């Protein structure tokens, strides 16, 4: 797979008229912020833009500027000139937004997951980028596309969330320079954005954490930590899927833990597995790929068919094997 250039993508963005900007199912701040930022820049150019996500806009990100632009895909598929997939490692993670597109002359794929196979006609996959938002920033700057306050705030939210507030290893001096530029030129108020991102959770999120901690288990001499959420508990607490984003970080934050795993029972007979690593030598993307998933070396996921107990056992065994092979 070889990447195209920002120039080629910039030319398509200028030359065509109608666009659909898509992101992955169960979106995070990077997907939603990147989608809105690119859409708003195209809107400034006078383009006809749709912004779709299978889950629509999440309550917790509804403070993002122009969040109203982001909707679920329409029931009747539409023809667009250009479809753009952002932050989406495999095409089927676009979910129902794919069915919203009757035809597109060109597919663009912009992402930072190393497991992205490079689907689409024009592809930029940059695994060195800590967030897709950083790639969108570079695209906008290099092509002289509009960058307003609203666009800057969406990009800042994308980068802040996907770097774990500028903590994860792919955070570089360039990331801080980009953040500084967004804050300065976009006139952003960092304290206010951070409060909306990290200090505005619903109380039920903490109630969920309390239940998860009850199920917390350590194995492999404290190197693996996991917790699980059953459908029953989720229903009792009336939690939304978005409520658990980031809770896995409590496991990762424990000294000695190398791999953290969160198992979430889904209604379709599968279990969502979310995995984090603190050691580049333990590639959780590779582990998740064995179960049909993907992601990054240090943060990955998969959806695995089976009961909660079965999936927990299979996945923890695989992690056991990987840790032991590494030692032998
Ligand atoms: P999560 O644990 O859901 O926050 O996901 C961690 C990373 O793995 C994200 O970058 C996701 O895009 C990626 N990922 C999660 N689930 C899957 C999956 N089923 N297939 C491919 N990639 C995934
Ligand atoms: Mn994402
Ligand atoms: Mn991302």
Distance between the termini: 34 Å
Tally of DSSP helical segments: 11
Main-sheet strand order equals: 3-2-1-4-5-6
Stretches where pLDDT is under 50 for at least 5 consecutive residues are: none
Percent strand equals 15-25%
Average pLDDT works out at 97
Task: List bound small molecules.
Answer: adenosine monophosphate, manganese (II) ion
Which structural class fits the helix and strand makeup?
alpha/beta
Task: Provide the succession of SSEs.
Answer: HEHEEEEEHHHHHEEHHEEHEEH
Biggest sheet character:
6 strands, parallel
The coarse silhouette is globular
Please give the radius of gyration in angstroms: 20 Å
Number of strands: 12
Helix content: 25-40%
Q: What is the multimeric organization of the chains shown? A: single chain
Describe the structure.
With 328 residues, the chain is of the alpha/beta class. The chain has helices at residues 6-15, 29-44, 132-142, 149-162, 173-186, 190-198, 203-214, 231-237, 249-252, 284-290, 308-327, and strands at residues 18-23, 48-52, 70-71, 78-86, 101-111, 122-125, 217-219, 224-229, 259-265, 270-277, 294-295, 299-305. The strands form 2 sheets. The protein has a 6-stranded parallel beta sheet. Strands 7-8-9-10-12-11 form a 6-stranded mixed beta sheet. Helix 1 (6-15) crosses helix 3 (132-142). The chain is globular and about 55 Å long. The model has no long low-confidence stretch (mean pLDDT 97). The structure holds adenosine monophosphate (AMP) and manganese (II) ion (MN) (2 copies). One manganese (II) ion binds at residues 24, 28, 30-31, 87.
